[in-house]
Structure formats: structure tokens, C-alpha cells
Design goal:
Strand content of chain A: under 5%
Helix content of chain A: over 70%
Distance between the termini of chain B: 83 Å
Number of strands of chain A: 2
Distance between the termini of chain A: 78 Å
Strand order of the largest sheet of chain B: 1-2
Structural class of chain B: mainly alpha
Oligomer: heterodimer
Shape of chain B: flat
Largest sheet of chain B: 2 strands, antiparallel
Radius of gyration of chain B: 26 Å
Number of strands of chain B: 2
Structural class of chain A: mainly alpha
């Protein structure tokens, strides 16, 4: 077994370390980082655009480049999340909670470095795990059917609720609203156009970017401007240290490991992916970390754990694709397309028929992670110094980049109006102290949850007990219940104290 | 009869302790009812074969229910225990300009991008939104607008190869 393993790695290394493949990996990483940083654009659009260019390349090189765009975008997304409180990628949405707080406290450098280091460690471990356990991992994924998926997503949502600051009811409402917004558009099952008000633009549903940029970007900018208007101070964020302290490094170890483990497992599940891995990792930190109390106000654990998780998940996301031929997400589906164009059938036979593709890709992932860390760490200084620019120059640029990025999604000005509408919503939410992160989570999960729920019920013939009968699903549901109780009990106790009737 | 009197007396003492909860609760209630109402018009189906309206209807009802709960938590029967300081920070008049300018500039961008092209739209966006900071001089805003517009065109159209009109229709 170990002899095999080494032989596989050797094969992979000899494929990945050719001058060409290194070059393609580098281009992919660079492009991916830029894409990740810019809000609105995403790896999906970029990969789709670059697909034709890869026709002329040999399949391994093509896959290497496209794959490195994908996880490069994860790195880039965390940069904007930390610096500007804008989730560049859906999976970076959770990083912005603590990451931006750290930036506000002048600790953008350690936050960015922590994210990069955590991601790199996760990438290393993830690559190793894939190399060792690709096949058994794939069969684990098969045990997950619709009821398990639904319960897993419910756990993720409850996790998002329980980790939100502020009132539980507020956060629950945000999740449900997010779910509803996610359902806007044409229903795949019945072909009915839901909640579109007859507008052809909404047929595809609400764009994540519009929601995220509006609620987080626009609303935040407005509120910040109001504060300055009132106080007339010139807002220049202070940037103290650029590098994590020794204390930071020590604190990063456990969350990185936890995030990596969680992300590696969750990335295996088709559809679950990087976003749910990031959210779940953060929830876990809140329950388990020694510094749980600081989460939400700038704890480095809150940056490192989700970043490690989303990077690990981005890697293991390839496993169901390569071993089972099941694309785990839209990006993976594009990659399946790329493979088929090169006459490669993804599936169990890929290990035997195209070993150099499989192992070459895996080793190149590790190389890509290395390149990304080398690219990003020196840039930490550059990014952090961006914050020193007076806000009045920053905010119009941010508005412009958001607007253009969103416009570029479908070449439609309507999307900008969407962003405007969500910006107004976001403004209302900030004013009312409602946590908006849960909204994003519900939004991403909406269609998937409905789909799993529907499938589970179809298979069970309308019997709701299917969720409790299956052991994995039951376990996940119990975990959700526990999380919910853990969040509710302190709140109830507090209220009881307030409501106590005076004697007499 | 006495029960009725007691109930009325209690209702008179109902005050809103947490206005924010009340507003958000109202928002959830109305939105939930709206979604549920629209969902009713789609085929609901049954548990065994969920129609298009099943899930959204359920969610809409849940949201409305949460709204009611929130409104409930915002009320209290003890007007004398109202928190002394208002929940918001010390009352400063919130300026309306930032909201209007940011929203307005983005709307302007959306309205002009197709006809005026990227460069001019960005210039307009920056010029209008810059008014939100009173210390932003016209001169500086103009320079910033040109810089950002040029940078955006270079980045999005040249470097990334996205298809979008850079100049107004008619020129090219």
C-alpha cells in the first residue's frame, strides 16, 4: 500500500513539475486570486470564459489551470472579506466576521497572513488526505442521500443562527428570509416561475453577488459615511503589525487542524462544499475553542478555521468528481465538461486509465497552494497599506468595482438595481442590529434544501419520519437541536429574570 | 366580567420596550405573509409530491410566525420598567445625504452604463458618490473619477476580457 502510494506521488510529481504545468498552475493561481478579490466575478464565470482556451491544451494541463483558478479564488475572496468586509466568494462570507474586526483593530496583517497560512496548511493536509484516501472517501460520500443532506444543511443553518450575534429570533428570521430569496426564480422541478413578478431577469433567481454586495457592501458604505458625516473625523484605519505574533501562531494551530478535518470531510459531499464547510467550522470553534468568547470581535480563530475549512473542502470537492464522476458543484460540472471535451470520462476508471491525470492534478494542487501562499504573503503588506488610503478615495472605488463586477455577470443593468434593493434592505438591517450573515447562508442553501427535502419525501412516500429513521440524519438533527438549545437557554433565562413579577 | 376588566387593564399597560424588535418583527410578519400568500397561488401539492408552492408556503408561514414572536418580545406589561436610556446611541441626526447619494449614484450608473459606456458611467458614479463626503473637493473627485474609470476599463475590459461597452454608443 505504501509502495503504491509513493509510486503514485512520484507519478504525480513528474507530471506536475513540468515547466508547462507549473506555468499553467501559476497563471491559474494568479487569475484565481484576482477573481476572488474582485466582488461579483467568481471562479464559475472565469472558468466558463477560459474553457475554450483550454481546448488546445492537453487535458492534464487544462485541468491544472482550471483547478488552480478555483482554489486561487478562495484565497482572494478572503482578502476582500478581511479588508473591506465584502465577501468575495460565498465561502468567505464567514471570514469577514472576525477578519474585518481584526482589520478594524489595526490587525489586518495578521488576519490576512493567518488566512493564507491556515489555507496553506489545509491545502497540504488536504492533498495528503486525498492521496491516501481517495477511494474510501468516495464511498463515504455515497452513504449520504437526501435525508442526510437535508439534515446536514439544517445543521449548517442552525449553526449559522447560533453563532450570530444578537437575538436568536432575528437570526432565525434572517435564515428563513434567505431561504425564501434563494427560491426566487424558475423551479427546476415544476417549471413554475416563483416570485419573479413577471420579470424575465429574475427567472434565474437572485444573484448571490447582488445580495452580498448590496447587503454588505452598499449598506456598510452608507452607514460608515453617515458616521463620518456626523463626526467629521477623517477615517484612516490604523495598521499596526503586519505579521502574526507568536501568540497568534500558537492560537492558530488547533483551529487550523479542526477546520481542515471538517472541511476535508464536508468537501466530499457533493453540493455541500466550501461554503457550508466554512460556516460549520466557525460554529465548531464557537463551541470548542478556548477563546470562544472573543469570536465575533476579532479572534484569529474566527479567520483561520473557516479559511482552512473552505480550502480543504475546495480540494476534496474534486474527489467525488474524479472518482465517481459526480460534479459536486457548478464549477465541478464545468470541469466535467472540460474533461469530456478531451475524451476523458470521469469516474472510477479514471484511476486506472488516466493515473497521470489524477495524481498529477493532486500534486499540482499542493504546488498551487504553495504558489498561492508565496503570492499572497508578501502581498499582505500591500493589501494592508490599502487600508491606509483615506476612506473618501476608497469608497467610490469600491462602489465602482462592485457595480461593474455585478454588471459583468449578465451584462444587465437590472442586476445593479437588484443590488440597490438589497442595499436598502441591508441598511435597514444594520440600523435594526440584525445580523445579516445568516441571510447569505440561508440564501445559498435554499434551493438545495428544498431539493433534498422533496427527494427525501418522494422516496419515503410522504413519510416525514424518514429523517429520524436514518441514523446519520438522526444524528445530524440531534446535533442541530443541541446547538439550538445551547443558544436558546441563556436567552430564556435572561428573559425570565426580566419578567419576574414583583412580590405582593 | 372581572376577567374582562383585568384583561383590558393589562392591555392598557402594554408598551413597546424594544422598538427595534417591533420593527423587525413587523417586517418579518409582512414579508412572511407576502411570500406565503404568493406561494399559495402556486400548486401546493402534498408531502409526497411537493408542488412549487409547498416549501415557500411553509417558510413564509414560519417567517410570519417569527415576526409575531419578535413583536411579542418587544412588548412588555411593565411600563415602569422601561429601559432608561434609549437603545440607540446618543441621538445624533442621521444625515440623509449618504443614503441618497450612494443609492442615487448607483442608480445613475445602472441607467447610463448601456448607453454611455463604462468609462463615462464610472466617472459619473464617482463624481456623484463623492458628494457624500463633504470634504471631498470637486477637483480631487474629478481626478479620482478619471483614475478609477481608467483603471476599471484596463482591469475589466483589457485584462479580464469582459464584454462591455467602454464608450458611448456610436463612438468606438
Amino acid at each position: 500500500m505504501s509502495a503504491d502510494f509513493l509510486a503514485h506521488l512520484q507519478l504525480g510529481a513528474s507530471t506536475a513539475f513540468t515547466f508547462q504545468n507549473l506555468g499553467y498552475a501559476f497563471i491559474g493561481c494568479l487569475t484565481g486570486t484576482v477573481i476572488g478579490v474582485l466582488p461579483g466575478l467568481g471562479p464559475l464565470v472565469t472558468i466558463a470564459m477560459l474553457l475554450p482556451i483550454t481546448y488546445g491544451l492537453d487535458p492534464t494541463s487544462a485541468l491544472i489551470m482550471l483547478a488552480s483558478i478555483y482554489y486561487g479564488a478562495q484565497y482572494g475572496g478572503s482578502t476582500t472579506a478581511i479588508l473591506v468586509n465584502l465577501p468575495g466568494e460565498a465561502s468567505s462570507a464567514i471570514t469577514l466576521i472576525d477578519g474585518h474586526q481584526m482589520a478594524r483593530q489595526g490587525r489586518a496583517g495578521p488576519a490576512l497572513a493567518g488566512a493564507a497560512i491556515g489555507s496553506f496548511c489545509a491545502g497540504c493536509v488536504g492533498t495528503l488526505l486525498i492521496a491516501l484516501f481517495a477511494v474510501p472517501m468516495a464511498s463515504l460520500a455515497l452513504a449520504f442521500t437526501s435525508p442526510e443532506y437535508f439534515s446536514l444543511m439544517l445543521l449548517g443553518l442552525i449553526g449559522a443562527v447560533s453563532l450570530s450575534s444578537g437575538s436568536l429570533l432575528h437570526a432565525l428570521g434572517m435564515v428563513v428570509l434567505g431561504l425564501l430569496l434563494g427560491l426566487v426564480g424558475v423551479d427546476v422541478n415544476s417549471g413554475t416561475a416563483r416570485f419573479t413578478a413577471g420579470s424575465p431577469h429574475l427567472m434565474e433567481g437572485v444573484e448571490f453577488a447582488c445580495l452580498a454586495m448590496g447587503v454588505f457592501g452598499m449598506a456598510e458604505i452608507i452607514v460608515t459615511l453617515e458616521r463620518h458625516h456626523a463626526s467629521r473625523e477623517s477615517f484612516i484605519a490604523k495598521v499596526s503589525s503586519l505579521w502574526p505574533t507568536r501568540e497568534d501562531m500558537r492560537r492558530m494551530v488547533a483551529p487550523t487542524l479542526r477546520g481542515t478535518a471538517l472541511g476535508s470531510v464536508l468537501g466530499l459531499l457533493p453540493g455541500a462544499g466550501a461554503t457550508i464547510a466554512a460556516f460549520t467550522a466557525y460554529s465548531l470553534e464557537k463551541q470548542v475553542s478556548r477563546h470562544a468568547r472573543e469570536l465575533g470581535s476579532g479572534a484569529i480563530e474566527g479567520v483561520v478555521a473557516p479559511e482552512a475549512a473552505n480550502n480543504a473542502a475546495a480540494q476534496t470537492n474534486f474527489i467525488p468528481l474524479l472518482t465517481l464522476g459526480i460534479p459536486g458543484s457548478a464549477v465541478m460540472a464545468l470541469l466535467v465538461g472540460a474533461m469530456m471535451i478531451h475524451d476523458i470520462q470521469p469516474g472510477p476508471q479514471i484511476l486506472s486509465q488516466h493515473p497521470q491525470l489524477f495524481w498529477g492534478l493532486i500534486v499540482s494542487m499542493w504546488v498551487g497552494n504553495l504558489m498561492l501562499v508565496v503570492l499572497n504573503l508578501p502581498l499582505v503588506g500591500l493589501w494592508a497599506s490599502l487600508l491606509k488610503v483615506p476612506y473618501r478615495y476608497l469608497f467610490p472605488a469600491i462602489l465602482a468595482v462592485c457595480a461593474i463586477g455585478i454588471y459583468s455577470l449578465q451584462g444587465s443593468a437590472f442586476d445593479i438595481y437588484q443590488m440597490l434593493a438589497f442595499g436598502v434592505l441591508g441598511y435597514f438591517l444594520i440600523k435594526m442590529d440584525v445580523p445579516a450573515v445568516a441571510l447569505l447562508m440561508g440564501f445559498v442553501m435554499g434551493p438545495m434544501m428544498e431539493e433534498s427535502f422533496r427527494r427525501a419525501l418522494v422516496v419515503s412516500g410522504g413519510d416525514l419520519s424518514v429523517f429520524i429513521e436514518r441514523p446519520i440524519s438522526l444524528g445530524l438533527l440531534l446535533a442541530s437541536a443541541v446547538l439550538l438549545l445551547a443558544a436558546v437557554v441563556p436567552a430564556v433565562r435572561q428573559r425570565r429574570g426580566l419578567l419576574e413579577e414583583p412580590e405582593g | 366580567m372581572a376577567v374582562l376588566n383585568a384583561a383590558v387593564a393589562r392591555a392598557r399597560r402594554l408598551t413597546i420596550h424594544k422598538p427595534k424588535n417591533a420593527w423587525v418583527g413587523l417586517f418579518y410578519l409582512v414579508t412572511g405573509l407576502l411570500f406565503a400568500g404568493v406561494a399559495r397561488t402556486y400548486a401546493l401539492g402534498s408531502a409526497r409530491s411537493m408542488g412549487a408552492g409547498y416549501f415557500p408556503f411553509a417558510l413564509g408561514c414560519i417567517l410570519a410566525g417569527l415576526g409575531l414572536l419578535l413583536i411579542g418580545t418587544s412588548l412588555s406589561l411593565h411600563p415602569e420598567r422601561r429601559p432608561a436610556a434609549p437603545q440607540a446611541a446618543p441621538r445624533v441626526r442621521t444625515p440623509a445625504w449618504p443614503f441618497l447619494l450612494v443609492t442615487g449614484s448607483l442608480a445613475l450608473f445602472a441607467a447610463t452604463i448601456d448607453t454611455l459606456g463604462l468609462f463615462l458611467s464610472v466617472v459619473l458614479l464617482i463624481l456623484v458618490s463623492s458628494r457624500a463626503d463633504p470634504a471631498f473637493s470637486w477637483w480631487r473627485a474629478g481626478v479620482a473619477a478619471l483614475v478609477v474609470a481608467t483603471g476599471a476599463c484596463l482591469l475589466f475590459v483589457v485584462a479580464l476580457g469582459l464584454q462591455m461597452p467602454v464608450w458611448p454608443q456610436g463612438l468606438s
